[in-house]
């Protein structure tokens, strides 16, 4: 039998079996390893990110069912182990020359303020003296150019002996390329997998980034193929997950966290956006200004609780502030437009925490 059953055949039948939470192939997630075939006996290792995975029995059963369908298979043995992100090696990912740390800013859902956080963290890091680049990979709503005051910018393509090189746009101390530069704002775009992968690779490897301390990637929301392509392409120093108090406990953030962990990318922490509301322009009262008041519209403490449950840090909470939206629309990020505002202070502290966590992770 051993001459008919091959390792590649086993992997082929296992390919449709998905991680139930991420809804992605176990084979593509590199969770199936060490496949062995001895006559009709098949064995392999299933590598989880946590030994306490509540769905492990289901996953094992799905794998066994898939392999047992193959003619000639008499027994399927699945060894289950867990590998923490730090233990994972990244043999197939190529770094970008001159770029020290690539960071992903992601969210489970759209509209939670992911781009706002990514842009302000980038500008805050640049204000602190770091060399910073940004890739706006949000195919659904590439709004980083507007937020950085670069909505009219276009990438310049230069022909070099090594091929095409893109010159990034630059403002507020940040170099940036965006999906928005490539598309007509009024035309809906249907990105096909290979085309999107090509552009992502071009943004990573064919941009004149020069020396960068941080390259921040504003990811598309969710955990789809584009996200997977990005995390698989380059070695990322860490990921930051942005959420709102209402979404914080939802499966979306958990899924994002799991995707990064599964792909060996350390999750630096969660940012809770729109945590509370600070009313503007309210009169002074004998007991101080009403501006000092904060309204916990969506309740409080959710981010902290979820971060603790998921075993990651809460990097900070950003208030819902009209000035933050206005500064984004005007193309002057709040950390530059009004550094003393509550949201700017929160964002600057978040940037400092990210920088600290990246350097600690680099020493580990
Ligand atoms: N804390 C906040 N206070 C006020 N407005 C905010 C805040 N955070 C984000 N916004 C506004 O909410 C809108 C959506 O934010 P943003 O574009 O950053 O979200 P996103 O998660 O990147 O969305 P998408 O997935 O659509 O790209 C923007 O108009 C932004 O200015």
Computed over alpha carbons, the radius of gyration is: 23 Å
Helix-strand sequence: HEEEEHEEHEHEEEEHEHEHEEEHEHHH
Query: What order do the strands of the largest sheet run in, or round the barrel if closed?
Result: 10-11-7-12-6-13-14-17
Present as ligands are: adenosine-5'-triphosphate
Q: What percent of residues adopt helix (DSSP H or I)? A: 25-40%
Please name the CATH architecture of the largest domain: 3-Layer(aba) Sandwich
Helical segment tally? 11
Unreliable segments (pLDDT under 50, ≥5 consecutive)?
A: none
Keywords:
single chain; alpha/beta; GMP Synthetase, Chain A, domain 3; Rossmann fold; 2 domains; binds adenosine-5'-triphosphate
Concise account of the structure shown:
The chain is built from eleven helices and 17 strands. With about 375 residues, it is an alpha/beta fold.
Could you characterize what this model shows?
The chain is α/β, with parallel strands linked by helices and 364 residues long. The protein folds into two domains: 7-83, Fe-S cluster assembly (FSCA) (GMP Synthetase, Chain A, domain 3); 99-363, Rossmann fold (3-Layer(aba) Sandwich), CATH 3.40.50. It is 32% helix and 24% strand. It has eleven helices and 17 strands. The protein has helices at residues 7-14, 56-68, 114-127, 144-147, 193-205, 225-233, 251-262, 302-310, 322-330, 334-337, 342-363, and strands at residues 18-19, 24-25, 32-38, 41-48, 75-82, 99-107, 132-136, 156-160, 163-167, 169-171, 174-178, 212-218, 238-243, 267-272, 284-285, 288-289, 314-317. Strands 10-11-7-12-6-13-14-17 form an eight-stranded mixed beta sheet, with helices on both faces. It has a three-stranded mixed beta sheet with strand order 3-4-5, covered by helices on one side. A two-stranded antiparallel ribbon has the order 1-2. β3 and β4 (41-48) form a beta hairpin. The radius of gyration is 23 Å and the shape is globular. The model has no long low-confidence stretch (mean pLDDT 84). Bound molecules: adenosine-5'-triphosphate. Adenosine-5'-triphosphate is lined by residues 107, 110-116, 138, 141, 143, 221, 273-274, 318, 320-321, 324-325, 328, 343. Keywords: ATP-binding, Hydrolase, Iron, Iron-sulfur, Metal-binding, Nucleotide-binding. Belongs to the Mrp/NBP35 ATP-binding proteins family. Homodimer.
